[in-house]
Amino acid sequence: MVFVGGPRQVGKTTFAFAFLRGEGKRHPAYLNWDVGTSRQKIRRGELPPHEPLVILDEVHKFARWRNLLKGFYDHDHPEISFLVTGSARLDHYRKGGDSLQGRYHGYRLHPLSARELSRTPSAAEIRNLLRFGGFPEPFLRQNEIFWRRWQRERIQRVLYEALRDLERVKEVSLMELLVDALPERIGSPLSVRSLREDLGVAHESVERWITILENLYVCFRIAPFGAPRIRAVKKEKKLYFWDWSQAPEGGTRFENLVACQLLKYCHFLEDTEGHRMELRFL
Known about the structure:
By secondary structure, this protein is an alpha/beta fold. It is built from twelve helices and eight strands.
């Protein structure tokens, strides 16, 4: 099995369709947990016959998804290969059950990078990447109105749909305020105490909410360079968004872009070659 995780609307489903011949979402080998008929087939274990590859999309929203996939793998491998995609950290959302160790490889799909535009990207291409972000749909359209609407709707879906399916968070409106407050703190050591005071909630709540946003590929944090690994965890980290177009324009957005490109490089070496990589800041 291959797991492909990444932010919502980064292109995971489109990527998965490249392994199927035509038909797209109507292909019998594509099963999406968010679609009622597909959900019933997945829960009953009814996999499409005579298909060498089955794509399971957003199946991590099922509480016992690990046991389900283990059963599929043990029963049908090697006749069937499985491609599992999800808009959350699949290594985190393992809600109990048996281990999948040794049964899958995990990969993370990132937004577009400068080198994916061309081997020697022009200044205009870099400006567009900074302005519209690296998510394929707004970048390819390069329309200011579409980009603003897309950005707002994407965050709304993450907060209200993903939190409903994966987390028990009652104060979703406060998390929305947190997401609005984070961009202005990009580029500086993140003070959880300051956020706690602004939102009027406990320190543990803010820390938990930020961790949830990290698990949903909304943002990520980087520890400072120099301190041993254990001590660095306790120091103030820097926070960046996977969609760097959410950062304020200018140097802050450029720094966020660079952080994303470096994180992509680290994840590439981890996922494809097995190296243990870390990203830090000076």
